[in-house]
Each structure stands twice: as C-alpha cells, then as structure tokens.
Amino acid sequence: MRIGLVVSRLDEASMGIWRALNGMIKFKEVNSNEYTSDLALALISNRDIVYVDEADEWARANNLDLVVFLSRHEMRNPRPLITFHTPGNWGDAELGGKPGLVAISEPRVLTNLFREAYRRIGELNGYSASLEATHHGPFIDKPAIFAEIGSTEAEWRDQRAHDFLASLIYDLINDTGRFINDGRDVAVSIGDLHYSTLMEHIINGEYDVGHMVPKYIKPTREIVRMAVDRNSVKPRLGIIHWKSMDRESRVMVEDELVKLGLTVVRRR
After folding, report:
1. Which among 129, 119, 120 is positioned nearest to 151, based on CA atoms?
2. pLDDT per residue over 72-105, tens digit each?
3. How many Cα atoms occupy the beta-carbon half-sphere of 18 within 13 Å?
C-alpha cells in the first residue's frame, strides 16, 4: 500500500506529528513542499488542513493508495482526544471540500487505527480515543483518513500526543498488513451522533466501519448510495440508528440499503 501524509504549516498539531514522524522515518526533501522515503510520501502545505485541495492532484500523480491527513481537532466542549474520520461533505461545503462529495473511506485502516489508539490510550494519560462521522474538506478522490489531536492549544502543542499519534501512523506505514487484513464485515452507519456510539461493538471486533452519516444530516437516497459506494471495501452491513430518524427517512434508508444488497441492522 502506497501511503501519503498531508501536513499543514498552519496547524501546530499537524506540524508536531510530522516532526515526530520525521524522526522515525528518514524523509528526503523533493522540494519545499514535498518529501519522500522508502515507506511513505509527504505533502506540506501552507493552507489550513481542510483547504489543502492540492492533495487530490498530488495523490493521483503519485498513485497513492491511502492519504492520511495529520490535523488538530476542535470541538464545542473541548477535551483531550485522539480521533479519526473520513473527510467529505454530505451537504454544503462549510469547511473546505466540495458540496455533496465525500472521499473514499478506508474502513480497515480507519477502524484499526482507532482500535490501536483505544488499546494504547493509557500511554497518553488524560486522553480518550474516538471515531467521528464523515465531515469537512478537503475533497480527495482517494481513500483518506484524518488523524487528529484535540481539542485545545494545550493538546495541539502536547509533545506526548504528537509522539503517540506519530507512533500509530508509523506502525501503519511500517506494517500495513496488520491494519488491512482483518477480514471482518464492513458496516456503514446512518443516523448516529457525530461521535460514534458504535465504539464498543467496534472494539469487540464485530465489524469495521466506513462512512458514517450523522443524525444532523437528513438522509436522501443519493447520500445512502454515496455512503455505501464510496468505500474501498464493499460494505455488507447497513446500521440504521432507528430513533434518530423520522418514519419516512427510516423507510427510505432501509429500502435503499436493501436495494444495494446490504444486511440492515436496526439500532434502537
């Protein structure tokens, strides 16, 4: 698997993770914005991470199989957090990307990065690990994951967090097979909270998860199809968070998932 890293010079967490990784992998400078090594490539941008639109062309030009964006995380009620998600916009492009377009989700890597972070989070006293719904830019027509440190300047500058996330990414780059060859069913999730409530099932290895459409997005047939189709591994399960939707939406989502050949799981 050919992996690329995207870093923003405007993002303290992004640069901190990059510096830590650069101490583990000996990157060589190609030009002022690009680096290469035997294990991975890196793109360093002067844009904020959600607006690094050049990542799409860069990933295609270098025939990358996976792009990992190294980023800070912000939230309304901040807490120390290591979190992962797929980028993309189900609706308007309010924070980078393109309206109504999502990246390709990489369910194996996304889920196993989270599992590994959860397993090791005790090394990072005071932090927790989470999975988020698909959201924000940039748009990239490749499998992509955001790996983030949250949620205030204190955590963005925390060398322990930089080292922790860098070590996870290094393990992914150095031993990719461990993250992609698990053989579990893949699920898509529709109607959950922004921060996934499926974590116990995921930690227990019941399934891997790709795209997650949160409850604040009103589902349409097009959104359901995109959530299913834009995965690097074909999903077998469609998880509907039953109580978060009105009756009309439930019926439509279930009907569309069945038409797409998925087994529906009603989560009440």
Report:
1. 129
2. 999 999 999 999 999 999 999 999 999 999 999 9
3. 27
Which tokens is 30 given? 């190609």
Q: Which amino acid is at 229?
A: D
By CB neighbour count within 10 A (0-12 exposed, 13-18 middle, 19+ buried), where does 109 fall?
Answer: buried
Structural tokens at position 64: 């990358």
Instruction: Please provide the DSSP assignment of 126-185 as one string.
Output: T-EEEEB-S------SSBEEEEEEESSHHHHT-HHHHHHHHHHHHHHHH-THHHH-----
pTM: 0.97
Residues β-bridged to residue 148: 71, 83
Residues 6+ apart with CB under 8 A from 255: none
Q: Could you give phi then psi for residue 213, rounded to 5 degrees?
A: -95, 115
Domains present along the chain, CATH in parentheses: 3-180 (3.40.630.50), 186-267 (3.40.50.10700)
Q: Is 248 exposed, middle or buried (0-12, 13-18, 19+ CB in 10 A)?
A: exposed
CA dist 201 and 107 (Å) reads 14
How confident is the model over 184-234, as pLDDT tens digits?
999 999 999 999 999 999 999 999 999 999 999 999 999 999 999 999 999
